[in-house]
Structures are given as structure tokens and as C-alpha cells.
Amino acid sequence: MVKITYHGHSAFEIKFDSHTILIDPFFCGNKHSKINAAEVKAEFIILSHGHEDHVGDSVQIAKKNSATVIAVNELANHMASQGCKAHNMGIGGAKEFPFGRVKFTIAHHSSSFGGAYMGEPAGIILNLGGKTIYHAGDTSLFLDMKLIGEMNSIDAALLPIGDNFTMGVDDAVKAVEFLNCKMAIPMHYSTFPVVNADPEEFRRKVESIGRKCTVIPFGGSIEV
Ligand code: NI
Ligand code: MN
Prior knowledge:
Elements (H helix, E strand, L loop, with lengths): L1 E5 L5 E5 L2 E5 L20 E3 L5 H4 L2 H8 L2 E5 H9 L3 E5 L4 E4 L2 E7 L5 E2 L2 E2 L4 E7 L2 E5 L9 H7 L4 E5 L8 H11 L4 E4 L11 H10 L12 E3 L1
Parallel strand pairs: 3-4, 4-5, 5-6, 12-13, 13-14
Antiparallel strand pairs: 1-2, 1-15, 2-3, 7-8, 8-11, 9-10, 11-12
Helix pairs in contact: 4-5, 5-6
The structure holds nickel (II) ion and manganese (II) ion (MN).
């Protein structure tokens, strides 16, 4: 079993066996997060890209827990320069870690931190035991999602629906079709007014194409 806890925006805590992995741990400044970054425990942090609403509290959490930050080259180098343990990867590359396998996919977006270039933005495919989770990062809809779906049997696809910076609801519904995923989970919505979106509208539209969608309440968990 893989336990997925949603902390709002694109921040997820993934528990598998004895491992805890954080993805895009943006807690401080995220109105939907009840997490105190000073108290959170994790062994690994995976970052989709360098924007402040995704890097979030990574430096503090990584240093306190001696956690390894897994990110695309330029962003990993930046995290290392901040005193974090980092593991550098590139888009299309996969690597086995103690908890499972991580592969970075393309994402169509940008990636910077404090105005500095942080390499290309990424999506993340996690293989944990027999389960596959795809975190799309910040991205537009792209046709290669069909390829991602063809090559991976995705149990849960975490997809941005907030529009403006990423896919909106209708594009994310198309993504569900392309990915052929067993379940879709909306993210990156309603944290700020500019990304306001209705996750129930997304759920209804995903169900109308015969697919499953779970809206995880902020702070809530599901098991896959
Ligand atoms: Ni972004
Ligand atoms: Mn974002």
C-alpha cells in the first residue's frame, strides 16, 4: 500500500513501507497546509521544478532531516549550494532509490528560483512496490502524455487543474484520457485567487469520460 497525503497546491507526502517522501513541499505560505515545516519528517524530497511554490520549505526540511533532494541538475545544484544533500537527475532519466524508482518526464512550463535558471521543469513517475504514481508538476497538456500512459500503468495521476500557469480543468480531463490512468487526483488549485478552480467540476468531467477521480481534501490521505 502507498499512502498519499495532500497538503494543498502540489505538495504531497508519500508513505511506502518505512519510507516518507515529500513532493514539492510548499507549506509556509500555503493556506491549505497545516504542516509545520520545522516538525515534518522525511528521508527524500522530490522537486518538479524551481518555482517558489514548489521548492517551498525544502531547504529547511532537508537540512533538519538530512534528507536528499532529488531534482533536475540545475535545481539540484542550487539545493546543494544551500547546504542540502542533493541527487541530480535529468529529464527522461530514472534511478532506483531505497524507496523505489524515480523517473523524470517532460513538463511544459518554466523553472527558475529567485530569477535564476533552474533547468527544465519536470513531471515525476514514482514506482513504489507494484504501484505507479505520476505527479505532472506544473505543465500544459501535451500529447506525449499518451506515451507516458502507454509505457506506465498509472495507478494515480496527480494533475494540476488551476489554469493560468498550468492546465485548467478541461485540459486536465484530456490528460486523464491520454494517460489512461486508473485514478486522477487534482492539484495546484485555489491556493491563490489566480489559480481558483473547482475540483468537483474536474471530478464530474473525469467521471463523465468513464474514469475515476478522487478529490483528496486538504490534509487528507488516500491509499492506493
Ligand atoms: Ni511553476
Ligand atoms: Mn506552480
